[in-house]
Amino acid sequence: MRLYYTLKTIDPIVISQTTATTNNHQCLDYIPGSAILGAVASRYYSQLDAEQSWQMFHTGELRFSPCYPTTQNEIALPMPASWQHAKGSEVFSVGTEQLIRENILQSSDTHTTQLKQIRSGYITSTGERATVQQGIVTKTAIERENKDKEKTMTAKDGSLFSYAYISSDQVFAGWIDSENEALLTTIRDFFDHNTIRLGRSRSAEFGRVQLTSSSITNSAAPHQADNKLTLWCLSDCELENAQGLATYQPSASDIHATLSGQLNRSESAILTEQVSRFNRTRGGLDSAQALIKRGSVLVFNLDEKATPEALIDIENQGIGRNRQQGLGWVVANPTWSMTASLPVDSQPLFNAVKIERIAAATEQASANTKLTAWLSEQVETDKQTRLHTQKIEQCLREVISFYRRVRSYKAIVPQHEIGPSRSQWERIDAQLRMDSNTCFAAVFEGQNRIAKAENDEYGWGAEWFIGSVPTNFEQAVYGVMKDLPIDCWMRFLERLCRYDLSQSKDLKRIEKELGLTAMEASV
Question: CATH top-level class for 2-83+125-216?
Answer without folding.
Answer: alpha beta
